[in-house]
Amino acid sequence: MKSDLCSKFTICIIEDDPWYGQLLQYQLSLNPDYCVSLYTSGQEFFEKVTARPDVITIDFSLPDISGDKLLKKLVSKYPGLPVIVISSQSKIVTAVELLKQGATDYLIKDENTKELLWNAILRVRENVSLKQEVKRLEQQLHEKYTFNNLLKGNSPALQATFGLMEKAAQTPVNVSITGETGTGKELVAKAIHMNSDRQKGPFVAMNMAAIPSELVESELFGHEKGSFTGAQGRKIGRFEEANGGTLFLDEIGELPAAIQSKLLRVLQERELQRVGGSETIKLNVRLITATHKNLADEVRAGSFREDLYYRIIGLPINLPPLRDRSSDIVFLAKHFVDDFCREYRKPPLLLGPGVCDKLLAYDYPGNVRELKTTMELAAVLSNGTEIKPSDVVFTPSARSNELLAEEKTLREYTRTIIRHHLNKYQNNVPLVAQKLDIGRSTIYKMVQEGEI
Ligand SMILES: Nc1ncnc2c1ncn2[C@@H]1O[C@H](COP(=O)(O)OP(=O)(O)OP(=O)(O)O)[C@@H](O)[C@H]1O
């Protein structure tokens, strides 16, 4: 690339006064990392230099071309190249004009020029290496956030999800993600954001179920000082925080009815007013929602607004539970163990005989999150070079503990379990009977008798 210059940091000086030019060349060449060449006119520079230098210094008053014209030519030939103008003119307006046109620095010719130029070039180098570092980090970030790198697994269901995520990343359409807890809904939302043209904007996540209902409105839309008791200062809401990026609303089914209409209005009008405020804030936010509920059922039951449902549904992505994508289970288990060993600098661990069978026999109510913690614990418990079945411990889920603590009769437990399955499988009685390994007639009878 730099064959006509050299492989070091290349500096071209364009200066018609040979004595002054040589002085600058000598001074800069004291740095062994620099390769400095001198040209006495713009014409000589363009004739001799074909490769892009790292920095150019130009004399403002050359005989063959004015400083501003030369600057324009250099900026258009080498976009982004640092150009330092050296001039005997100390007029501020000239300096400002040249800086506006793309000069990196403007130095006055006097007894301090050598030192000022030395420092200006050090700054340019610092800037160049910072830009390279940013580029490298951006590249790394991009690789880190590719779908394959974020979401591990080789099941056909996950591959199909990648196809939908690709479509979502390419367009600004709203996205709604459904799936049981721990299936990776937030990860999918983040991956879409990081692969969309909003990747440099913020990704803001808010879980509706985690916020007391009386605070949801102010969390989402912000508030002005004094707008309600306890509002001691202005608060910027999550919508405003996410401006220019993506807002991920988890557990959208929990959104209080009173706020649903305000959310609909904000989405339709793409602007909001903070609670207690009158200023209108324009929004440019991509919305991704998630829920483990069946929102269509919520609409039918009257607890979720139909118009809001159609507004947010956009591109639907369903993440199947982990137990229904068994080919991901062992793949993910291995991935989490490898990750854990790398992070804690432990030698790699194999999955020993019997581990895969044990992993595949379990039903993962907590999905990938549960598998992850189970495998991390297995890696901690393991004493040798492999994980044994006894290292894989499935902790009873909080849900089942809670359920047992209720101390119901067996009949009541049966009813609860059947009701849960009917809700989950949209009242598909044959499927529920098959899942629970009971006769369909048992279910029909309970329904008939009003027990369910
Ligand atoms: N395919 C996957 N590959 C790697 N890690 C995953 C995958 N799916 C989920 N995880 C991990 O599982 C955990 C749970 O994921 P996440 O929080 O995205 O799930 P969720 O569906 O949003 O859960 P919840 O409904 O409880 O909010 C996270 O640690 C996430 O990194």
Automatic annotation (TrEMBL):
Residues annotated as domain Response regulatory: 10-124
Keyword terms of this UniProt record: ATP-binding, DNA-binding, Nucleotide-binding, Phosphoprotein, Transcription, Transcription regulation
Domain called Sigma-54 factor interaction: residue spans: 151-380
Coiled coil: none
Pfam families on file: AAA_lid_14, Response_reg, Sigma54_activat
Matching InterPro entries: AAA+_ATPase, AAA_lid_NorR, CheY-like_superfamily, Homeodomain-like_sf, P-loop_NTPase, Sig_transdc_resp-reg_receiver, Sigma_54_int, Sigma_54_int_dom_ATP-bd_2
Residue ranges crossing the lipid bilayer per the database entry: none
SUPFAM superfamilies linked to this entry: CheY-like, Homeodomain-like, P-loop containing nucleoside triphosphate hydrolases
Classification via CDD domains: AAA (cd00009), REC (cd00156)
Superkingdom per UniProt: Bacteria
Family annotation (SMART domains): AAA (SM00382), REC (SM00448)
Modified residues (4-aspartylphosphate): 59
PANTHER family assigned: TRANSCRIPTIONAL REGULATORY PROTEIN (PTHR32071)
Protein name according to UniProt: Sigma-54 dependent transcriptional regulator
